[in-house]
Amino acid sequence: MLQGNSCRYACRSAEHALARRQFLGQMVAGTLAAGGLGALTSPTIANAIAQQHKRVLIFFMSGGLSQLESWDPKPGTPTGGPFRAIPTNVPGVHVSELMPHIATIMDKLLLVRGVNTSEDDHGKGQYLMMTGRRQTPAEEHPRLGAVIAKAQHADGLDLPGYIQITPGGGGGRSADAAYLGPQFASVVLGNGNPPSNTGLSGGVTEETDGMRQTLRRHLSRHFLARRRTAQTDAYMQSYEQAQRLMQRRDAFDVTKEPEKDLQRYGEYDLGRHCLLARRLLEQGAMCVQVSHSNYDTHNENFDFHIEQVGEFDRSFAALIRDLDDRGLLETTLVIVMSEFGRTPNINIYYGRDHWSKAWSIAMAGCGIQVGGAFGKTNDHGTEVVDGQVDHGQLFHTYLRAIGIDSTENFRIGGRDVPMADPSRGAIDEILA
Length: 432
Description:
- The protein has eleven helices and 17 strands.
- The protein has a nine-stranded mixed beta sheet with strand order 1-13-5-12-9-2-8-6-7, with helices on both faces.
- The protein is α/β, with parallel strands linked by helices and 432 residues long.
- It has helices spanning 20-33, 43-51, 100-103, 122-131, 144-151, 206-227, 230-247, 259-265, 269-282, 301-325, 391-401, and strands at 2-4, 55-61, 85-87, 94-96, 109-115, 162-166, 187-190, 287-292, 332-337, 341-342, 354-355, 359-365, 372-374, 376-377, 384-386, 409-412, 415-418.
- Mean pLDDT is 86; it is low at 18-50.
- A hairpin with a 6-residue loop joins β14 and β15 (384-386).
- The chain has a single domain (2-430), classed as Alkaline Phosphatase, subunit A (3-Layer(aba) Sandwich).
């Protein structure tokens, strides 16, 4: 049912210690034959390609955001905790009082309150939410960002097709594209810093570097004439993307944003990361993922959620308003997810444990019926009573919302591999 206008504290797990396809195919084939992907660094071509695509912004609330202290409060019940529910600008839809800013933009959001994934392990829960499939020893599946980058041919754009912004670490390319190939794997920006090694080494001028690149492409052209394989293409593509990143290094510099924006988003890590995400989306990034951690609240759940949700509420609301004001929300799907929710029951340490049988995610932007809530849990939040969905259905829905046929296959190594779990389908009731 669609409600509204339209429809010493963690568990110490290891995880917490033109037709665009034809056009791009011809461009890639032509530039490879002519000496690499360098021609695709043209700003005019890159911008024309970028405008044909929808974008995705993922917020991953690492550790397991409590649905009861965010999207699906149950005040006045034994499981509800100490916080009130407050009305939003959508009649009949309430959120936790920890989200006063988000309450004012609920008309731009959709809450999905009937998620049941039946997986309470951090690693496995994150895997199934990011891939739409359960983890098995038989095969590794690509994450959502890699699937989007591959499906929309992001390997020809200036910026990487899939960018992750993490609180710490990172700085290199992940292995999260699985069989899609390294060119579609995420580039991880540790603590929001630009990709490492994207400046010229000391003593190397732009003229000298240009001569080096010309020689490399010349040699590559002769090599590929006889020995071209998927591996050599990926190898060459990594060089071309490195060069494009060097030319677009300023895209990652949030200090170029006005001071008033830095203050409005919040002068803490998540605020800066949200501002960086907006900057990257404005400059043509296809899929950006922002991580916000410390939600694994087995102890002192309520104290931690006051701090964490308070940060998220301010920064997220500012970002959604900006995307809307700048016309980007019409072409950007925003997803707020975790690996699971938290137990309705409160433990002896005033914490909530892992709970995947009845929890919530939120979405905004293109392709979605915003301005309400879909699905419902019972009065104590212990089970879904209407509109139950799982990870596979959500994955199909994300792809459909940005115009990708989620029932299509990728052609990998001479065989067809489904983009999404073929045993599941999209949630048609929430698609615009």
